[in-house]
Amino acid sequence: MNNKDESFEKPAQKAEVLLSESPQIHSITDEKGFYILGNVSVGEHSISIEYTTQINNKSEERVKKTR
Prior knowledge:
With about 70 residues, this protein is mainly β. It contains no helices and 6 strands.
């Protein structure tokens, strides 16, 4: 799966992706925005995505999104 940072139109690197109902199942995106979640049971699930961006090399913005 690929998680793209839509505000900059480039992959979101080092974003944490976790299964909402089982946060112990999580992964970190690679330099292309890809991640793998292992040991997920068959069925419909929600994921949460969290990452931090730097703006003007000073401030940080933490972004959370649940799908």
